[in-house]
Write a structure and sequence with these properties.
The complex is a heterodimer of chains A (256) and B (483). Chain A has 256 residues and is an alpha/beta fold. Chain A has a domain at 6-91 and 172-190 and 203-245: 3-Layer(aba) Sandwich (Rossmann fold), CATH 3.40.50. Chain A is built from 8 helices and 10 strands. In chain A, the strands form 2 sheets. Chain A has a 6-stranded mixed β-sheet, with helices on both faces. In chain A, strands 2-1-4-5 form a 4-stranded antiparallel β-sheet, with helices on one face. In chain A, helix 4 crosses helix 5 and helix 5 (154-168) runs parallel beside helix 6. The termini of chain A are far apart. In chain A, 42% of the residues are buried. Chain B is α/β, with parallel strands linked by helices. Chain B has one domain (32-427). Helices cover 25% and strands 34% of the residues of chain B. Chain B has 12 helices and 21 strands. Chain B has helices at residues 5-12, 37-46, 51-66, 105-113, 120-124, 143-149, 156-162, 164-170, 181-189, 430-438, 443-459, 464-478; strands spanning 127-133, 136-140, 152-155, 192-198, 207-213, 223-229, 234-242, 250-252, 255-260, 265-273, 285-295, 301-308, 313-316, 319-322, 328-337, 342-351, 357-366, 371-380, 388-398, 403-412, 418-428. In chain B, the strands form 2 sheets. In chain B, strands 3, 4, 6, 8, 9, 11, 13, 14, 16, 18 and 20 form an 11-stranded mixed β-sheet that branches. The radius of gyration of chain B is 22 Å and the shape is globular. The chains are: A alpha/beta (256), B alpha/beta (483).
């Protein structure tokens, strides 16, 4: 754990949406190369946390800050955070009719190239780049010519998220319930894809309800969220205990 | 990013100041204000018109007096003060010009600012331009090239002098003088416009193009276009419009008449970007246009493509009357409204002949507080057996305050015909835009991509060089004031 750089640091984060307090003083530190799983009951603030990290405009930060690679990103625009290396694989990827996946991916790739002051690529050059990623993730090239997520099955949508993750080569990726709605074969394929992308510099946040994803992607830490904060942190054994016993033993007794 | 920034950006994304907002100072001859018999007589005399045309105007004027302005459109605008309209204005040009070098340098700069390449470049691009500045054609290029093929492309005033028989035969046959309030007005006081005649068996070698420009703060604009395609001929005509920025509303009431004879094809494309008023809804052009094509001959075809982005008020229904057996009418439209713009636009497809076919693809985009309505009539007469129509009307809303409406009218009078109508409404939502932003794609690019995809079916119908222009125009409308 020594000599590693901190990638993400969240300090005392308080967040509201429509005047409802969702996050209440959350702290989290993630070092390079680490995989963190965040579990917790519905409504505990997991998805809010993921969206706030990438700058969704619907949420208001009342207090606290978010540092990424040492830089305060709390008030940065979402596209800047994306360029810096923050990626969110959405729980429900939206469908965009009329826009081909190929155009969408190329625009995203070129936006990052531009930010890095590198040459933007044309459609033919881009095809070579994306074909490598398709091969890596075992995705058919017909994927490119369909409209973004339009008519995609649940599994296809999630794989499309991982394709974007691979293309943008982000340093910190948040996977918001990427396992939900996937059958066991699809889950394995998606998890294999993710495993091919992680390395010593890259970190992952896995938001999930189920331990089964963690059978395929091994987390270094498991956090349990409840009522807008992290209630408990442990290792993989914590996830196993949750799978067996549920959250009840962790939570304050509500009958009193 | 603060909480409501994205929402704010959404409604403001198209608020770039009007790029073509300037006026050219050119001395003008004075002409009496108002519309009456005296003014019409003066107008006709000034233009040295033959007796039949003066009578045509006078008859139209009488019908206009009896006509009422249409109230059925979903539009709200101040009444127009016709007593203050100058229906004729001419830049003070002493003589007819032979070359571009002779034109007023100020006027030339205006054209350059508008990006109208009225020079050799355009010739290389294979487009002849008949530039209408205010009401009189300043110059017409490439007539020689066209003349070799027998195509006539000139101003309508010139056509009245040189080809009076053609004018007498066809003027007002597609849009009669009493057709509607604005058509009567135009027929009474039209000042100039374009005339095209494609002879038998001729495929017009150039794409014909006219740029209209409104330059006088108080002048009504009454352009008139007449295109005749003889048997087995074909022509593609491009019309593009820009106007300077003013606070006073300006009236534009044009007429376009197309006539396609046996096996003839006419493709009429418009990109319109007139001043639409500022972000508070002040100023802008009132655009009341009657465009109609007559497929008179067997197997004839008329195709309208329009990209409407400007004007404070748009009232426009390019139509096809399908008389000839197996004739075909098409209408492809993109209408973008912003701020307080109001558009009530669509088409009419009137099937009279047997086996006639029509297709309507309409795409409406409404932003901010604008109102965007599609209004279309598909009428299949009892004798138009085995006719077919397919209509598709899609609306795209941006923000929470814009409006989209679809008013389809369908009348079918025989049992062998088939009419299909599909409509959809979608909204560019915050979650969609956030998806782009999270992937590093900026708001402007996101909206350009979404709108480009939405309009693709129409853009692909435009002539190639116009398609690029249309894309550019929408992007221009969408850029600035974001971020």
């Amino acid at each position: 754990m020594t000599n590693k750089n901190i990638l993400l640091e969240i300090n005392n984060l308080h967040v509201t949406v429509n005047n409802n307090k969702i996050l209440k003083g959350l702290n989290l530190k993630i070092y390079e190369g680490e995989i963190h799983a965040i579990m917790g009951p519905n409504g505990s603030g997991k998805s809010t946390l993921s969206k706030v990290i990438v700058g969704h405009p619907a949420y208001t930060i009342e207090e606290g800050n978010i540092l990424f690679k040492g830089q305060d990103v709390t008030s940065l625009d979402p596209e800047e955070r994306s360029h810096l290396g923050l990626f969110l694989a959405f729980q429900y990827p939206v469908e965009i009719s009329g826009v081909s996946n190929e155009d969408f991916l190329r625009f995203a790739y070129n936006a990052k190239q531009k930010y890095l002051k590198r040459k933007e690529v044309g459609p033919i050059e881009f095809l070579k780049i994306i074909e490598d990623k398709l091969r890596l993730l075992d995705i058919k090239s017909t994927f490119l010519y369909r409209n973004v997520n339009e008519g995609f099955s649940g599994g296809e949508k999630k794989r499309n998220e991982i394709l974007q993750l691979a293309l943008l080569d982000s340093q910190l990726s948040i996977l918001d319930e990427t396992d939900s709605g996937l059958d066991i074969d699809a889950l394995k394929i998606v998890a294999d894809g993710i495993n091919k992308l992680v390395n010593k510099e890259k970190s992952l946040i896995l938001i999930t309800h189920y331990q089964r994803l963690l059978d395929y992607i091994k987390p270094d830490f498991v956090h349990v969220m409840e009522n807008g904060t992290i209630l408990k942190t442990g290792d993989i054994t914590l996830a196993k205990k949750l799978e067996d016993q549920g959250y009840g033993w962790l939570l304050p007794d509500k009958t009193e | 990013m603060q909480k409501n920034n994205l929402e704010k950006n959404l409604t403001n994304f198209a608020t770039e100041p009007y790029k073509y907002g300037f006026s050219t100072k050119i001395e003008k001859e004075t002409f009496p204000v108002g519309i009456n018999e005296k003014v019409i007589k003066l107008l006709s005399e000034k233009k040295n018109e033959p007796e039949f045309l003066f009578k045509f105007r006078l008859n139209a004027y009488k019908q206009w007096k009896n006509n009422k302005k249409p109230q059925w459109a979903f539009l709200n605008y101040q009444d127009i003060d016709y007593d203050n309209i100058v229906c004729y204005s001419v830049p003070k040009v002493k003589k007819k010009l032979d070359s571009l070098d002779e034109i007023d340098p100020e006027l030339k700069r205006t054209f350059e600012k508008l990006g109208i390449p009225l020079n050799e470049q355009k010739r290389l691009a294979n487009v002849a331009v008949d530039a209408v500045f205010d009401s009189v054609s300043i110059t017409t290029t490439f007539q020689e090239d066209l003349a070799k093929s027998g195509v006539i492309f000139c101003s309508i005033s010139e056509a009245v002098k040189l080809y009076p028989d053609l004018i007498k035969k066809y003027l007002g046959t597609v849009v009669p003088a009493g057709d509607n309030f604005f058509a009567s007005l135009n027929s009474a006081v039209f000042s100039d416009g374009s005339f095209c005649y494609i002879p038998k068996n001729v495929i017009c070698p150039l794409e014909l193009s006219t740029y209209f420009r409104i330059n006088d703060q108080y002048s009504g604009q009454f352009e008139r276009t007449l295109i005749i395609a003889e048997e087995n001929s074909s022509v593609s005509y491009l019309e593009g419009c820009t106007a300077p920025q003013y606070d006073n509303n300006q009236l534009h009431a044009a007429i376009v008449e197309l006539i396609a004879l046996e096996n003839a094809q006419i493709k009429y494309s418009t990109v319109q970007n007139w001043y639409s008023g500022d972000e508070f809804g002040v100023g802008g052009i009132y655009n009341f246009v009657t465009k109609r094509g007559l497929c008179l001959g067997t197997n004839s075809k008329i195709s309208w493509t329009q990209v409407e982005t400007g004007s404070a008020v748009t009232w426009k229904y390019p139509s096809c009357v399908l008389v000839g057996k197996n004739s075909k009418g098409e209408f492809y439209s993109v209408a973008l409204t912003n701020h307080y713009q109001q558009a009530d636009t669509g088409t009419k497809m009137v099937h009279i002949g047997k086996n006639t076919r029509s297709q309507i693809i309409s795409k409406g985009i409404s932003n901010a507080k604008s109102k965007n309505s599609y209004r279309g009539l598909v009428k299949i007469n009892s004798k138009a057996t085995n006719s077919r129509n397919y209509s598709q009307c899609d609306s795209l809303l941006i923000g929470n305050n814009s409006q989209a409406n679809t008013f389809p009218y369908i009348e079918v009078q025989n049992s062998t015909s088939r009419v299909e109508h599909e409509a959809s409404t979608s909204k560019i939502g915050e979650e969609q835009l956030f998806y782009f932003l999270q992937r590093g794609i900026c708001l402007e690019d996101a909206i350009t991509l979404i709108i480009g995809g939405f309009c693709e079916d129409v853009f692909k119908e435009l002539p190639l060089e116009f398609a690029a222009e249309a894309n550019q125009l929408l992007s221009l409308k969408l850029e600035g004031s974001v971020g």
